[in-house]
Design a protein that fits this description.
Structural class: mainly alpha
Number of strands: 0
Strand content: under 5%
Number of helices: 4
Oligomer: single chain
Number of domains: 1
Distance between the termini: 57 Å
Radius of gyration: 23 Å
Length: 154
Amino acid sequence: MDHRAAAQERLMQERLKHKLDQVNSAVQSQLSQVHDHVNFTLQKAYFKCAYECFDRRRTQEDIGMCTENCSVPVLTAHHFVEDEMASFQEKLNRSLMVCRDKFETAKFQKTGTDPTVDLEACVDQSVQESINSLPFLVQKIKTSLSIDDQSGSQ
C-alpha cells in the first residue's frame, strides 16, 4: 500500500470513528431516562425488597431465595435493554459492512469516481438512519419497562 492510500485509509478510519462517536452520543442521550429508571428506580426497589428479606425468623436459604426474587425485575430490565442495544448495534454493523463491501468493489471497478466519496455518503446515511431509529427503539424499551415519559425516574 502506498503512502497516499495509507493516508486515505487513516482519514477514512478517523471519519468513521467520528461517525460512530455521534451514534454513541445519541444513544447515551436518548437512553438516559431508561438508564436512570433501571439504575435508580428499579435498583432502589430491589434494595428495599432485599432489606425486607432479612428477618431472623427466616432461614439463610429463605433469605437467599427472597433476595434473588427481589433481583428479578432489575435483571430482566437490564437484559432486555442489553438485548435491544445489541440488536441495534448489529443492524448498524451490517449496514456499515455493506458500505465497506461497496467501497471494496468500487475500488477495483475504476469507474472514474472516487470510491471514498461514495463510502463516506453510505456511512453517513447508515449512521443517520441508525440515529433516526433511536426514538422508536427508546420508546419500545420505555413501553416494555413501563417508564412514564412524564414522571421520569423517581
